[in-house]
Amino acid sequence: MGVLLSILEKKIKKFSIQITLDDEDDARDALVSINAGAGGTDSQDWAEMLFRMYTRWIDKKGYKLQIIDYQSGDEAGIKGATLRVSGVNCYGFMKVESGVHRLVRISPYNASGKRHTSFASVFVYPEIQDEIKIDIDESDLRIDVYRASGAGGQHVNKTSSAVRITHFPSGVVVQCQQEPSQHRNKEIAFKVLKSRLYQLEKKKQEQKMQNLHDGKDDIAWGSQIRSYVLHPYRMVKDHRTGFEIGDVDRVLDGDLDQLIEGVLLA
User: Fold this and answer.
1) What is the Cα–Cα distance from 170 to 83, expressed in whole angstroms?
2) 3-class SS shares of the chain: helix, strand, coil, % to 5
């Protein structure tokens, strides 16, 4: 009975996580940027520890990793790195890692052996494809035909060859009357409509990326999403959920599922 209950709980949890990944970007690949904060060598070493943690988690998930950029630190660690991660619901899982990560430990780079706090930022973007596909549903259109007229109201022709297309979802209206053929005017109007919708979609994507970028926190005290404490006690705490794990080494070795799932289910 206990085994069956455990299996059922795992299935319910998995289903609960899947239904949270319903954002249009969740299924996309992810671009992950890791950057050392202020604090010199200690922060650069911390950024490299995060890099190692994420690459191990990515490997455990069976995701595909591509290192796009890697900037070594002056003495140790890294100044920053950018990863491209591919896999099922990749961005949906990794987006919760965006924010400032704080490390508390005895600094290996300080001869006095004092406790040191380091910061590094992780920022996760959905990978937006360059090619924007515009599919127009004809049920979303109203097509009107009318007589084309020239300057001064003179009729260019006596047939209803001019075409006006209204796209209801966007409110875009295009019209064409330059050709004597209604069919040709309709063809041109469709091309104009598609171009207008393409520009609208492109602006929407650019705005989305700008909003994500504007949401980035300063890499400093008070803005951290998670703390990793190695001294005077050992603990990882996610400040958004209050969830704590005592086995810091396991987390730093890439065992992040509990932390990630906790945020998704919160």
Assistant:
1) 35
2) 40, 30, 35
Evaluate if residue 118 carries a pLDDT over 90.
yes
Supply the DSSP symbol for 17: H
Confidence at 218, pLDDT banded by 50, 70, 90 = low
Owner of token pair 């660690």: 77
From first CA to last CA, the distance across the chain in angstroms is 28
Q: How far apart are CA 132 and CA 181, in angstroms?
A: 30
Alpha-carbon gap, residue 218 to 180, rounded angstroms: 61
Q: What are the structural domains of the chain?
A: 2-130+219-265 (3.30.70.1660), 138-206 (3.30.160.20)
AA letter at 223: S
The pLDDT of residue 80: 94
What is the pTM for the complete model shown? 0.74
Helix axes 257-265, 2-20, angle to 10 degrees: 70
120 and 79 in contact (C-beta within 8 Å)? no
* Pairing between β-strand 99-106 and β-strand 141-146 as defined by DSSP bridges: unpaired
The confidence score (pLDDT) of residue 153 equals 43
C-alpha to C-alpha distances, 119 to 44, 101, 173, 201, 249, nearest whole angstrom? 9, 6, 51, 36, 18
